[in-house]
Write a sequence for this structure.
């Protein structure tokens, strides 16, 4: 059974970022606001949303000083809170529609806020850092404005923003999807990674990620940084994201990637303002910055990455300043390894190689990067061809990880890796099954939070096997930091059968096997 | 119903003084709801206006007592009629408190079946009990039916006197003598609302750390929102008016919490002004739940991690308890004066609310929306039902005989049904008001699910320490009639030994999983393998009597279960037994059931059919059909057994068709019998 039409997130959708340390005096409340969507919202409305949020943050701290407000559930709206940095809050308000599957789990909605913040931080550092650098807040506002607007465009379906809902219950935002390779291919990939490292100058901090289609093949970065870069790659760097034609498929972004390919930000276009003409001052809530215009790097802007003739991806208008030097190659801040790195992207057919070179050691700027690129081509070209060839032979297509009869999501929280049934297959599930799974995941989220609070060092294992009212088996199993969610719509009547099916699946497919 | 009502002008009354007992009767408004001419209504109204006085018989407490109709009397349950009957004195004191003594069953099971038409209500406990015991292990508490009888022709209901309500201005006008100890003997009895350290070490304040036994009434009056201890209380309940005036707070003095109350009001109003209605705010393990009932706002702030729907349900019950005392007509006070202060109307009822809130942590009726019955033999219950039925024929709307929170027998007028929530609120009201224990009483009460707008009159009389009779009528003049009814009932109950049987049943306790039979052909079967994490040792049993198996759970690792009959609105829960011994373990299981119930009954996705849930503490199984719901907790080490059992249960269902037939075929052997059978088959199959 198919799903109903996309759930519109219409006029009731709001997204804001505010700083509780600003605008402390009466009459200066607008100074708190760093970003507000929709941008044309009247100021009283903006202040009302911020006011309610701030009020509830203060109120909940009376009882819960360590964890302030996370969610407000009202009859018509759901407010999701995320304290991105100390006193810097991101709030997303999603309107509930008559369609009962409209609202996703609160953790899924919060996942959107977490993702946008971690991607933002990867490119621009912390918001607090920007505010300290420029206390007026103009830079932070400009960067946030374009970044979040570009990010929200990913959720556009038609003219509506579609936030995660119950039908996304078998996906996990912000995780990495891995390609399972055979032994031979794995050895080839391993030797490619060694070659990539040798391309860098001796002692230079260098990391790499290798992707095939939309799946990760190899990484030398810790899980958090890998997940951030992987998700950025999915948005802008993979062959699908680079090409300007309609994308084919993506594990996570199929529904939205084909919907907005214009170079003009569709959200900006929807409100009738061409993106190039938009100045953040038009909705700037701080009166002393009227008329400011900045040249703003927009890492998430569509259509700004191309594949050059040498196979390296290039982007325009991305000057970044590190110390006194200017780089035109994008740089990223990797939070886990705590380093600024240059981002070099090489692409051969469906193979994408992301090479990260520390900015601190590359003394001669762009020239140094050119040298590294040249070295890479000389050393690794043949190996790249070979790896691509091997992987393409093993490539099972977009339904490679479909397991007949099962609709599943496997999560490994330690390595931030997930594997799921292809989206096309998940859509065959009935609305009732998806709703039941979404609700069960909400319960599991709560159990996980509780277990974490009770004893952060002890991972609680548990399992729920539920026969929903439509007779589907809805299964959740949490064990040693790994989670399995499964919907069996055609399973037999018995709990034993369902349980055995889950065991069989668990033994065969494990995230660590990827 | 309310639209048909005509209102008589209320006679303005003076505010009764603190004791209120010497006051002359005030006024009431009588309204006709079921047929009857306007003349009749006027006549009734006139009756209602007539002062109603009687002299107490009990010479030890000589005073004239008045019954105040409507809300004037409402504010003073402690001021009800005190007319003790010498005849009952002999009965009092015979019953001691229930001990732990549990006699083995000796009497044969009455084979008569219980349910035939809607005229009869069958005790779910009875039902399950019949099914649960093998013939050679029959308990003496046999089963029968509770019947509902015909409604009297002239059913009247009373609407409260709003002006009188508004005129009650002094907190001292109440006479509720709360603070009775209402520690229950139910299956979850004795669970104190204590979260000492354990899983929540940060929450330093124990709710009932002062005493091991729970005592009704308000505590921590000296606290307010500035107190650290107040902020750390695990579960707050607040009631406030739409203008932000505090009406009730579980902890702290309402008057000191005016500022906090205004904050809650501001949050609700702020969201309302945006065209929305706030339901829940979550922060860490804290949840703030809002319920708006017209001009009355109810808020719960909890870090107990109960499901939202459960906490919301608790607020609904608190509101219901408030309606039981005041009726929904209190809204009109707010219409007349938005700043109306409702606190005085509820003065003295702290024990009623604290007892209800305490029930949220031990009484499954609060989330199951079902009531439980006292196990009795068929003939005993039949005899009880018959005498109550006679009474119902003489114009009583409901006649209820209860023992603590368990129903012994219930008779209702035809077409009148008593909602389980009303039953819970009514019994809580009676049990938590000390004054009901000391004298026979006649008090206006409202059944919110029956008619939230009108008062009924409740004649309440304790037949012994724990057993009490409630006769509900619409007639404010029925005291003497109901008193006669009570005397009649009491005589019959005495003659037929019902009272002594009830006492024996209380001593015997309820169902025990250890009593569930184990297949004797498999002498090596382990029943309820001990759980290492609870420090239990394995025990081996082979269909031996309960005494020898004490402390090991039932067959197939069964530790506890609750069975709810959907069409009877009744449930039965097994008694707690080892390894669910401590209050903490019992409360944890209670909360696990609560979560399971919420999960299975999800408003959007549910109700689901089956759920198997395993964690480090238990294996929980829930099975819902159109007839019944089964909640069971098993040893987590019995996982494979349970999976197999679950599988069999479903196959069974498939084999036997659906509906009643399924239930009767599956349950007729009793859950335990089936479980034991399945266990044996499992052992043979998997060769464990």
């Amino acid at each position: 059974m198919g799903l109903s039409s996309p759930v519109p997130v219409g006029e009731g959708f709001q997204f804001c970022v505010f700083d509780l340390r600003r605008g402390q005096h009466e009459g200066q409340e607008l100074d708190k606001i760093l970003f507000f969507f929709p941008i044309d919202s009247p100021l009283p409305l903006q202040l009302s949303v911020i006011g309610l949020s701030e009020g509830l943050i203060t109120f909940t701290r009376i009882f819960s000083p360590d964890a302030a407000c996370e969610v407000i559930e009202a009859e018509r709206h759901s407010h999701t809170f995320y304290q991105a940095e100390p006193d810097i809050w991101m709030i997303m308000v999603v309107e509930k529609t008559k369609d009962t599957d409209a609202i996703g789990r609160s953790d899924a909605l919060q996942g959107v806020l977490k993702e946008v913040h971690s991607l933002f931080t990867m490119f621009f550092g912390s918001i607090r850092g920007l505010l300290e650098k420029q206390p007026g807040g103009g830079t932070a506002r400009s960067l946030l404005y374009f970044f979040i607007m570009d990010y929200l465009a990913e959720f556009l379906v038609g003219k509506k923003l579609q936030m995660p809902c119950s039908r996304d219950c078998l996906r996990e935002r912000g995780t990495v999807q891995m390609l399972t390779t055979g032994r031979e291919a794995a050895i080839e990939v391993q030797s490619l990674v060694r070659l990539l490292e040798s391309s860098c100058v001796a002692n230079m901090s260098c990391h790499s990620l290798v992707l095939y289609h939309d799946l990760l093949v190899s990484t030398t970065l810790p899980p958090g940084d890998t997940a951030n870069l992987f998700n950025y790659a999915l948005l802008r760097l993979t062959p699908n994201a680079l090409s300007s034609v309609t994308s084919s498929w993506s594990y996570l972004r199929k529904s939205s990637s084909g919907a907005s390919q214009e170079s003009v930000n569709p959200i900006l276009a929807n409100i009738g303002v061409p993106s190039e003409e938009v100045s953040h001052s038009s909705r700037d809530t701080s009166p002393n910055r009227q008329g400011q215009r900045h040249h703003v790097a927009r890492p998430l802007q569509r259509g700004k990455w191309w594949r050059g003739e040498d196979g390296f991806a290039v982007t325009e208008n991305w000057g970044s300043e590190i110390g006194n030097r200017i780089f035109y190659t994008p740089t990223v801040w990797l939070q886990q390894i705590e380093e600024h790195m240059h981002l070099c992207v090489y692409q051969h057919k469906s193979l994408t190689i992301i090479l990260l070179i520390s900015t601190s050691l590359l003394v001669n700027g762009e020239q140094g990067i050119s040298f590294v690129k040249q070295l890479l081509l000389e050393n690794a070209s043949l190996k790249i061809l070979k790896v691509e060839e091997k992987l393409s032979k093993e490539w099972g297509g977009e339904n490679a990880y479909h397991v007949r009869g099962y609709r599943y999501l496997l999560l490994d929280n330690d390595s931030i890796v997930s594997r799921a049934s292809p989206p096309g297959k998940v859509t065959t599930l009935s609305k009732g099954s998806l709703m039941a799974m979404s609700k069960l995941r909400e319960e599991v989220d709560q159990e996980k939070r509780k277990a974490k609070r009770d004893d952060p060092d002890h991972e609680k294992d548990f399992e729920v096997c539920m026969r929903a009212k439509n007779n589907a088996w809805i299964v959740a199993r949490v064990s040693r930091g790994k989670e399995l969610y499964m919907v069996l719509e055609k399973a037999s009547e018995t709990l034993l059968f369902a349980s055995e099916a889950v065991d069989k699946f668990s033994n065969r497919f494990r995230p660590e096997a990827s | 119903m309310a639209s048909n009502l005509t209102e008589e002008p209320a006679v303005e009354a003076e505010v009764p003084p603190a004791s209120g007992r010497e006051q002359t009767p005030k006024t009431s408004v009588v309204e006709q709801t079921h047929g009857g001419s306007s003349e009749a209504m006027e006549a009734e109204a006139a009756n209602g206006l007539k002062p109603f006085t009687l002299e107490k018989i009990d010479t030890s407490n000589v005073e004239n007592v008045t019954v105040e109709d409507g809300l004037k009397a409402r504010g003073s349950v402690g001021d009800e009629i005190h007319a003790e009957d010498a005849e009952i004195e002999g009965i009092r004191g015979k019953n001691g408190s229930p001990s732990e003594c549990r006699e083995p069953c000796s009497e044969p099971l009455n084979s008569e079946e219980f349910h035939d038409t809607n005229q009869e209500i069958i005790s779910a406990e009875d039902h399950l009990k019949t099914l649960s015991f093998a013939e050679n292990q029959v308990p003496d508490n046999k089963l029968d039916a509770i019947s509902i009888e015909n409604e009297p022709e002239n059913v009247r209901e009373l609407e409260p006197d709003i002006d009188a309500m508004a005129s009650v201005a002094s907190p001292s006008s109440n006479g509720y003598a709360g603070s009775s100890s209402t520690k229950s003997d139910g299956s979850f009895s004795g669970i104190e609302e204590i979260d000492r350290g354990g899983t929540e070490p940060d929450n330093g304040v124990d709710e009932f750390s002062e005493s091991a036994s729970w005592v009704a009434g308000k505590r921590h009056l000296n606290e307010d929102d500035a107190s650290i201890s107040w902020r750390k209380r695990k579960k707050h309940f607040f009631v406030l008016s739409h203008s932000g005036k505090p009406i009730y707070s579980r902890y702290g003095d309402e008057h000191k919490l005016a500022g906090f109350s205004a904050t809650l009001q501001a949050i609700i109003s702020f969201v309302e002004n945006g065209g929305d209605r706030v339901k829940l705010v979550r922060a860490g393990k804290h949840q703030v739940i809002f319920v708006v009932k017209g001009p009355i706002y109810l808020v719960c702030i909890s870090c107990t991690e109960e499901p939202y729907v459960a906490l919301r349900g608790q607020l609904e019950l608190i509101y219901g308890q408030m309606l039981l005392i005041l009726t929904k007509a209190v809204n009109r006070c707010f219409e007349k004066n938005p700043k109306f202060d409702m606190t005085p109307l509820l003065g003295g009822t702290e024990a009623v609310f604290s007892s209800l809130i305490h029930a949220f942590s031990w009484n499954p009726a609060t989330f199951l929306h079902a009531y439980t019955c006292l196990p009795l033999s068929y003939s005993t219950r039949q005899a009880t039902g018959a005498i109550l039925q006679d009474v119902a024929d003489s114009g009583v709307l409901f006649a209820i005989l209860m023992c603590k929170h368990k129903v012994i027998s219930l008779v209702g007028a035809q077409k009148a049904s008593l909602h389980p929530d009303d039953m819970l609120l009514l019994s809580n009201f009676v049990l938590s008001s000390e004054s009901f224990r000391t004298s026979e009483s006649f008090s206006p009460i409202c059944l919110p699910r029956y008619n939230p707008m009108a008062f009924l009159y409740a004649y309440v009389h304790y037949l012994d320490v724990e057993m009490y009779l409630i006769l509900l009528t619409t007639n404010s003049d029925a005291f003497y009639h109901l008193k006669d009814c009570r005397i009649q009932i009491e005589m019959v109950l005495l003659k037929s030994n019902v009272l002594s049987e009830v006492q024996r049943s209380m001593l015997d306790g309820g169902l025990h999983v250890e009593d569930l039979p184990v297949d004797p052909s498999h002498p090596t079967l382990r029943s309820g393998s001990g759980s290492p994490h609870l420090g239990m040792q394995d025990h081996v049993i082979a269909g031996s009597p309960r005494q020898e198996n004490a402390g090991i759970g039932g067959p197939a690792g069964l530790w506890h279960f609750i069975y709810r009959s959907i069409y009877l609105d009744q449930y039965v829960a097994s008694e707690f037994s080892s390894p669910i011994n401590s209050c903490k373990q019992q409360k944890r299981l209670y909360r696990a059931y609560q979560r399971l119930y919420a999960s299975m009954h999800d408003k959007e996705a549910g109700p689901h059919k089956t759920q198997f849930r395993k964690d480090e503490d238990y294996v929980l199984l829930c099975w819902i059909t159109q007839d019944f719901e089964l909640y069971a907790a098993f040893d987590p080490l019995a996982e494979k057994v349970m999976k197999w059992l679950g599988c069999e249960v479903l196959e069974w269902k498939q084999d036997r068709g659906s509906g009643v037939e399924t239930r009767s075929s599956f349950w007729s052997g009793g859950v335990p019998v089936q479980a034991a059978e399945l266990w044996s088959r499992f052992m043979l199959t998997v060769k464990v």
Notes: The longest helix of chain A spans residues 365-394. Residues 183-255+302-394 of chain A form a domain with the Beta-Lactamase fold (CATH 3.30.450.30). The longest strand of chain A covers residues 339-348.
